[in-house]
From TrEMBL, chain B:
It comes from the Bacteria. GO terms for cellular component: ATP-binding cassette (ABC) transporter complex. This is Amino acid ABC transporter permease. GO terms for molecular function: transmembrane transporter activity.
Amino acid sequence: MTAAVPNAAASSDVMIELRGVNKWYDKFHVLKDINLQVAKGERIVVCGPSGSGKSTMIRCINRLEEHQKGQIIVDGTELTSDLRQVETIRKEVGMVFQHFNLFPHLTVLENLALAPMWVRKTPRKEAEALGMQYLERVKIPDQAKKYPGQLSGGQQQRVAIARSLCMNPRIMLFDEPTSALDPEMIKEVLDVMIELAESGMTMMCVTHEMGFAKTVADKVIFMDRGQIVESNPPEEFFTNPQNERTKLFLSQILNH
Amino acid sequence: MSHNFVPLPDQPPPTASVGAIGWLRRNLFSSIGNTLLTLLSIYVLAVSLPPVINWAFIDADWVGVSRDACTSGGACWVFVSARFETFMYGFFPAEETWRINLIYGSLFLCMAPLFFDKFPYKVQLGAFVIFVFPIFGFILMFGGVFGLTPVETSQWGGMTLTLLLASVGCVAALPLGILLALGRQATNMPAVKSMCVLFIEFWRGVPLITVLFMSSVMLPLFLPEGVSFDKLLRALIGITLFQSAYMAEVVRGGLQAIPKGQYEAADALGLSYWKKMGLIVLPQAMKIVIPGIVNTFIALFKDTTLVIIVGLLEILGMVQNALNDPNWLGYSTEGYVFTAFMFWIFCFSMSRYSQALERKLHTGHKR
């Protein structure tokens, strides 16, 4: 039921490629033969019930989790146990977490400037200017001198997005970025993500925000029990789901 | 139809719950049981405190040079003042004690700016105090160059020796402890991990007094003839290794308190292991374990008294030595009270400093 791989992804512009990826936690088989291609500038939304392996899959892409079988190729570099390659890929891949994971002992601006300074060796002045530029892009430049603990959840998540952008990544991964937020704050984060999508960033986003999926996704992937069950453009995914499992899932999350 | 939401105005708290009366009520007389305990405490203080104050201050003798000055029946502080030099400097030659005072003075001058938030060169000065100052201090203490009379380590003693043992112990044990803690956490390097576990468990398993005794008595047996380490150096190494094991476990506690998300965020940004630890994990972990670290420092400070077993006379050793002086027999209470007071001043200062540091580093975040 997996849709045919679109032509765009087959070209040389493939940013992320997963070939027969398998992963086990002890004996528990979390990812089963995952095949996936993400083209440059493509926006993928991954959804599925909890425990379906969607977070694990996205975390494999910058090797926060190790896969045990198959190949993951990111921007032309294969992920292996070679630490240098892992670090090279992590520089190119930004990640936004469910719980923000800002560094609480640093101010917002220090959070933003840290990686450019220490990984890219940008001078402090430049790194801070870069940080301010991205804070303006996420519309909270006035919070620069505060500590993360003094910000609302929505503001913290926007800082987290800006922090990833400061590394000038070619790919952005989002792992349930709005799941830990109060309903009032979800929109401000989604707005930032939509703007980012419109700027042409290659994005993979695990989320249950179906509105977001309808607006920006080029492709929606539905996962269950470690497998990709369905992968289709949003119009088709929402109006004409192919698989029974997808239909059940959609009826549960759209009609509550 | 629309309503504007208008919050109620703030009101002051009830008067009986604030002010001195409120405080007394809440803290001392909040129930029958608490009232009885308060009264009992007042009684115990009233019975025990006046004799102590009488002995220590009112009936005490303060001035004089020998025991003949002590006639009033209270504490004979003359013993302490007459022997003060040896308590502070040990057997350091009297005409050379200016060198120790110079160390204290210059150390104070170097450290003072570190306590001011606005001082711009903190890191540089801190590095100077930790790496360069010890060389300067060692030259002054040891002598033998620049026309300074050499002073053997066997002549070092008193409070000077206590502070030397404690500060070298703290400064050396902390980084070693951090490395050991990181090593013990390194699950992907089993060899490093098991070596660290072995080291920590060995040193935590033996009493310090055994370590000192072994370093002094056993070590020379294993060394070839003619090779000998300085006794003080051996004690310092023993204390450092011993305390680093404790420090490692304190730091490990802090490392475990850092959420996995912090490691992952650092990884995702492409930080290498040492940058992740140095910039993200350790600053947070160390802040959590400040109380534990200071606790270890205080324990170390007091454990320095054990070097008496290998014949090094720090302040307690010097006091006990003075008590054996036939001229001053029978003044052990004064000697021990004085020693305890000196220790208390330093330990209490450390404790207050750590509390101030915790407050300063608190950035209003909670987990």
